[in-house]
Amino acid sequence: MASSSVNLEDVPLMDLMMELLRRMKCSTKPDKRLILIGPPGSGKGTQSPVIKDEYCLCHLATGDMLRAAVAAKTPLGIKAKQAMDKGELVSDDLVVGIIDEALKKPSCQKGFILDGFPRTVVQAEKLDELLKSRGVKVDKVLNFAIDDSILEERITGRWMHPASGRTYHTKYAPPKVPGVDDVTGEPLIQRKDDTAAVLKSRLEAFHKQTEPVIDYYSKKSIVANLPADKPPKEVTAEIQKVLSS
Ligand code: ADP
Ligand code: AMP
Q: What's residue 83's pLDDT?
């Protein structure tokens, strides 16, 4: 069945063929259900597209979804905005609801990458319940291990393309033209919470509320620790090693 919002007759033949080829290749890949945990700026968003393409997974980043809701001024966005501006976590129920809905997407059929979720033990427990009711479970948790001292430079130099979530860095991953997205030519923005001051609260939330989530999954023996302070290509190589073992 064609999806309700796209008329397949209007899709260019080349795009249809490419999508068909992609799906044929995907059918040979194993299913994977992954969680990426790490402090802000540890590289989760940078690595996600590589894993997503390699294993044909959907990439669900709760931060990106919440920012889209804030920009669209939806009731959910209005509820989330204040906490996000201050670098605090939004309520567990709110993000669990978003993830529950998003996991129903056809693009999540072969598995998912959860980026920035779960961020509390309550979220992890609720995710377990959600997955149990669907008869699946998390395969691997990638822990982006990195010292806090490296993160301020990463966060304050980050630029992003809001529509796609693509990120750049003035020093480590500059766009071809400063301030412009390489793919679409659209303007890049700096996130309102990507300041040294808000980073302090975000790191506090990480250490207090999210680090216990790593212990939660360690008890299930599914955590892989990554050296997230290495250059991006080396981190990618480590991830590939972990996922192919
Ligand atoms: P997260 O999604 O974990 O918050 P990002 O992937 O957005 O982090 O990375 C934060 C910033 O650091 C971005 O500007 C990105 O280009 C840059 N970056 C990501 N990984 C690395 C790395 N391994 N070395 C140096 N800079 C990196
Ligand atoms: P991120 O893009 O992952 O840095 O998230 C940006 C902000 O969105 C965070 O500082 C929180 O306010 C909010 N947020 C994102 N994911 C979650 C989550 N799983 N639980 C609670 N708040 C979240």
A: 97
Residues in the chain: 245
Q: How far is the CA of 228 from the centre of ligand 1 (A)?
A: 9
Local structure of 170: helix, strand or coil: coil
Reply yes or no on whether the pLDDT at 158 is more than 70. Answer: yes
Burial call 69-87: b when 16+ CB within 10 Å, e when fewer: bbeeeeebbeebbebbeeb
At residue 74, what are phi and psi to the nearest 5 degrees? -75, 165
- pLDDT band, very low/low/confident/very high, at 165 (cuts 50, 70, 90): confident
Q: Which residues contact 101 (CB under 8 A, 6 or more apart)?
A: none
Indicate the helix (H) or strand (E) that contains 145: strand 140-145
- Tokens of residue 172, six digits: 């480590």
The atom number, within ligand 1, closest to the CA of 47 reads: 6
CA of 238, nearest ligand number? 1
pTM assigned to the model = 0.93
